[in-house]
Amino acid sequence: MTTVPDPGPRSGRSDRLVEGEFVFTASDFRQIASILHAHAGIALSEAKAALVYSRLAKRLRSLGMRSFREYCALIEGVDGVDERQAMTAALTTNVTRYYREPHHFDHLRDQVMPALAERARAGGRVRLWSAACSNGQEPFSMAMTVLEILPEAADLDVRILATDIDPNMVAEGRAGLYRQEHLEPVPLAQRSRWFSKTGEGWAVNDTLRRLVSFRELNLIGDWPMKGRFDVIFCRNVVIYFDDATQELVWNRFVPLMNPGATLYIGHSERVTGPAAARLDTAGLTTYRLRGAS
Predict the structure, then answer these.
(1) Maximum distance among all alpha carbons in the chain?
(2) Beta strands 202-204 and 126-130: pairing type?
């Protein structure tokens, strides 16, 4: 690992962005912001400097580093792949809950699933994608919604892909273990049917697990999926991207959507760019790809 001399906290430098244990300059911030944007598409303004400092100072201590200059040298180098991932995880916010923005799940249940259930029962393929799944509460909410209309879904050709850039979140989703407070939005009937009480909380049961597959995926990286989807949830993610990256992501979804497929986005997001010409509004922050289903 390349090391860079530490100017030291008592150097009297006036270009610090944040006062603290480590010298953190505008140049350090720009370097970190540039790497984060290139790696994950996330745009950081200098107004986030204090947040960046507080979260990454923990990484510096963990790595035994003495300066942000040293840290920047690591994440820019060929040996910095793992730390770039750790940095991205530290700087992203994983806010999620079961049935978040419940109107989307109502729409999925009432407007989308009846036709998909008919197709699945006739032997057809049905695919859903949670494109920023965090720790699994969104895709498991999708699974419970599917099972309301199609109780035998796990025995048919129906599957939910759950992806996230943060490997820690993907691991939590695969584990399927949630604290009591996480389950508060889940109705008691659903909770008792699809979860089992454990010593410290609740565990997802086998039926839900069979429906959902978790994978790591960077939305601005390579997408290995070949088949098309009937439903995509991509909510409260692109708000962290600049306009050009938002348009890129929306446009990449379109070729992976079946005609008539549904896209659900976050409450403060909107589809822009070429994709907007292919998607019709189907409800609040809900879009449908033009074409017969």
Answers:
(1) 73
(2) unpaired
Distance between CA atoms of residues 248 and 40, nearest Å: 13
Q: In what order do the strands lie in the sheet with 229-234?
A: 212-216, 158-164, 126-130, 229-234, 257-265, 286-289, 279-283
Counting residues of the chain whose pLDDT is more than 70, the rounded percentage is 95
Q: Which domains does the chain have, with CATH numbers?
A: 26-91 (1.10.155.10), 102-289 (3.40.50.150)
Residues assigned a catalytic role = 55, 164
pLDDT at 19: 83
How many CB atoms neighbour CB 291 within 10 A? 11
Mean pLDDT across 211-235: 96
Asked whether the predicted pLDDT for residue 224 surpasses 70, the reply is: yes
Please name which of 266, 261, 255, 256 lies closest in space to residue 280, comparing C-alpha atoms: 261
Which residues on adjacent β-strands are paired with residue 120? Answer: none
pLDDT band at 17 (very low <50, low <70, confident <90, very high): confident
Helices 113-121 and 137-149, axial angle in degrees (round to 10): 70
Integer Cα distance of 160 and 236 in angstroms? 19
